Amino acid sequence: MGDYHFVYKDLEGSSTQWDDIQRKLGNLPEKPPVFKPAPFAPAGDEDSKPIDKAWIDGKTEEELEDLEDDLDDDRFLEDYRKKRLIEMKESAKIAKFGSVIPISGSDFVREVSQAPQDQWVVVILFKDGYPECRLLLQCLEDLAKRYPATKFVKIISTECIPNYPDRNLPTIVVYYNSAVKATHVGISSFGRRCTSESVALVLCQSDPVLNDGQGGEQSTEAVLAGVRQKFVERVIKEHEDDDDGSSSD
């Protein structure tokens, strides 16, 4: 004969009225909680992320060009790409110097006095053969590379000002909107040890003279913060180089 015995299993978590009464009387244990699986969440897909400003911010010009081929019909991407390209081109226009430009007396008005509005111009009056002039010029060359949106020029002192005393060399004159904003006479103006950072700190004491052309904040404090950071990095590197040199002996 076949086995006709079977076990009836109700829906999980369900209970009879009799069982409920027995549980209230303490004759049956409490029902175990109903098992609930954790909600399913598919793994994130980079390609499925929405294309918004956060997604494409930081893309280079080449990456934006590549994205245009794949997503040419995305209006937001196209508009944003055009905006970014304009910003990059404007930044390239601003950062156009990068060195200390030699000028003559006949160039002074055009290159300094008639410089475009909102253009900082740092002029060094110097003469060849003076170690102090050579040292300060080296510092300015370094700063000109770091801050290519600031214009640095050099001119032989007597071509700029006839009979200018050699004892005042080197001299730096800072111009902005055709006006003299600061004058620094002699190498001692830049501290006991003249470095690129000490020169930058003096130049930016009251005005944000140095501009890297990256479109960032150009307040005096922002520029000084960047200069201090460069100073710390240089000191750390010098110490690391000294340690490497001593360990190799």
Automatic annotation (TrEMBL):
The record, for Pfam families, names: Phosducin (PF02114)
SUPFAM superfamilies in the record, alphabetically? Thioredoxin-like
Q: Where is the composition biased (Pro residues)?
A: 30-40
CDD domains in the record, alphabetically? Phd_like_VIAF (cd02988)
Q: Where is this region: Disordered?
A: 26-51
List each copy of the Phosducin domain by range. Answer: 60-179
| PANTHER family per UniProt | VIRAL IAP-ASSOCIATED FACTOR HOMOLOG
Q: Which family does it belong to?
A: Belongs to the phosducin family.
Q: What is this protein called?
A: Phosducin domain-containing protein
Source organism (scientific name): Castilleja foliolosa
Per the UniProt record, the lineage of the source organism begins with: Eukaryota, Viridiplantae, Streptophyta, Embryophyta, Tracheophyta
